[in-house]
Amino acid sequence: MRIVGFPVILVIMDLKTKRRGVVENGDGGEDLVLANLIANGDDVGPLVRLAFEMGRPEGLLRQLTYVVKEKEAEIEEICKTHYEEFIVTVDELRGVLVDAEELKGELQTDNFRLQQVGSALLSKLEEFLESYSVRKNITEAIEMSKNCIQVLELCVKCNSHISEGQFYSALKTLDLVEKSYSQNIHAKALKMLIERRIPVIKLYIEKKVCSQVNEWMVNIRSSARNIGQTAIGRAVTIRQRDKEMLEQQRKAEEQSASGLGDLAYTLDAEEVEEDSVLQFDLTPLYRACHIHDCLGIKEKFREYYYTNRLLQLNSDLELSSSQPFVESYQTFFAQIAGFFIVEDRVLRTTGGLLLADQVETMWETAVAKMTSLLEEQFSCMESAPHLLLVKDYVTLFGSTLRQYGYEIGTLLDALDSSCDKYHLLLLEECRQQTVDVFRNDSNEQMEIKKETDYENIVLSFNLQTSDSMPAFPYIAPFSSMVPDACRIVRSFIKGSVDYFSYGIHLNFFDFVRKYLDKFLIDVLNVTLLEKINSGNISAPQLMQIAANITVLERACDFFLQHAAQLCGIPVRSAGRPQATLTAKVVFKTSREATFIALQSLVNTKIDEFMTLTASVNWTPDETNENGHDYIHEVIIYLDSIMSPAQQILPLDAVYEVGSGAFEHISNSIVAAFSSDSVKRFNANAVINIEYDLQIIENFAEKRFYSAGLGEIYNEVSFKNSLVEARQLVNLLLSSQPENFLNPDILEKNYYALEIKKVVPILDKYKDSPDGIFGSLANKSSKQSARKKSMDVLKKRLKDFN
């Protein structure tokens, strides 16, 4: 231990000696700078770099040498101070070294012994590790085999699901294989096979599902007609129920308004589940939608479904040419209704398979096609009932689909636009029926034998003139034409109301009234006028027509009330002044036209008898108290006219006909005196005309009072209609004819005569010496005075003119 420490002490002492040498050399100031830097732990790098950059490394080396010497001196000083302790420490370290050598020997011995023992154990360990590696490989192989077996089992299960058509289960199995087991398949061939087959299987499932959807589409299309017919049938039931409720309400309101009962309403609500009425299976569609959702291609399936259903819709909207529209329209609209009922449920229940905009697009396409089709078909129709049937079914179609939220306004507008066409056809059909009724009418008063017939013919149209039931058999004041025409009018009203019902107009009474007026004026009244002006009609027939028109005029109120009742509005509303029918005024005008035609016919017939210029001797030698033959013929004819007139016409009409006939007779007599064919006449001729006039006056008075006109027209009888002829004859037979120009006498006795007519007549009046005064001797004074007075009158009249 000591031998080792000796060189160390010599080194320290040598360092101390060198340190002294350095100090003695001087240069201590510069060396202190570097020593301070090192002592403070500062970085001397910049100082070294600066020395080399300035090209003065010698000074730096000298300074470093100085620092080294300084440190050696410090070490030497420390070693001198702790010398003894250092020697002890070195000895101890030497002892430790010896101990370490001994321990090293022991360790080598133990290591040798351990090597001998561990060689056998190491051989066993290697065998164990090899066995463990084999076991681990076998375990991994078993796990891999199990995974493969599970995957193969899932594949078998998937194939089984596919073969059984359980595609959703097959997809779930595939998903399990793909997500849970595919990462653990270390059999590369199997993994590649599965990776190739999964897309193929998914594509196969997609095709099979689409095939099922296609089959479902075919089936649902064939079922759509039944679905639509069922739904429309349900709408018919609802409409009928609502109609009955409205009728009950109307009756209750009328009873309440008349004070016959209390107003009461009942509401019968019948809830009908849609599914209980419309049964159709959407299961294949639900399944396909869910499977495509699982495949992640729901959007593709939505487009596929929409495209194919749109193609089906366009096909359904094509009208078959093998069958007329009037025979196929129900199946056509039922098919469309069924289509959109199915689509509504698809929209509501498939969770987004269809979008609302897509359904709206399909509906707009269908409405546009149906509107165009209806306009085209309506323009070709020639039958009002056919058009009405189509319109009614279309409104049911619209009412059905409106319950599913579809907008039908455009469809109803198309129906409303055909309103004029429908009423034109209806007017034409009713016109033909009216013409047939007029052609078959006997123009004779109806005989009603039973009360039931009276109710059907009279009471059903409010044609009665009394509230009491008449005795039977009852002779009605009208012919069979009236009730037949009323039935036609009633059917026209019903046809018009049926067309407007369930359309876009809620209150359509004014429309019905307008078309009713048009029918009454343009059809019924025009047919009446054609009958009146036909020229081959007798006076009794004209009388009956006039009587019929009077009844029809009265029936207009019933027509209006009936229209109001069918339109569902209160009768009191229909009775307001602005709601009256213009046809009433037109019928009244036509009745006047009938009387004019009747008067013209009677006057024409009277003219045939009153051929005075040819049948009367205007210069007879003697008088005839029995009258001329023509006047008796006229009386016979007038009797044949006045008798039926009293039975058929009202009293005012009888008076009008009689007054006109007798006035025409009077005019004919005056015209005969004024005729150019009569060159002159004598007093005997005037007296004979006087006899004729007396006969006709007596007949006129008899007819006037027998007809019961005395109480109504007591101041102006039929006899007054002969006043012009009477006053002319009185003037010609007057003893003082010159008084004619006396204003008082003229106003009292000759007010009906016109001076310009009297003048030429008086010029023709030339009595002969052998005339009426011939029995007297030589122009008696009476004759002379009368002749002088007549001459004076003639002269005065000439002067007057």
Automatic annotation (TrEMBL):
Instruction: Indicate what this protein is called per its UniProt record.
Output: Exocyst complex component
- Provide one Gene Ontology biological process annotation: vesicle tethering involved in exocytosis
- Residues in Exocyst complex subunit EXOC6/Sec15 C-terminal domain copies: 411-764
Pfam families for the chain? EXOC6_Sec15_N (PF20651), Sec15_C (PF04091)
Answer yes or no on keyword Membrane: no
In terms of domain of life, where is this protein from?
Eukaryota
Question: GO CC terms on record?
Answer: cytosol; exocyst
* Cell compartment(s), UniProt: Cytoplasm, Cytosol
Q: What is the lineage of its organism?
A: Eukaryota, Viridiplantae, Streptophyta, Embryophyta, Tracheophyta
Annotated family? Belongs to the SEC15 family.
> Which InterPro entries does the record cross-reference, listed alphabetically?
EXOC6/Sec15, EXOC6/Sec15_C, EXOC6/Sec15_C_dom1, EXOC6_Sec15_N, EXOC6PINT-1/Sec15/Tip20_C_dom2
Species whose genome carries this gene: Flemingia macrophylla
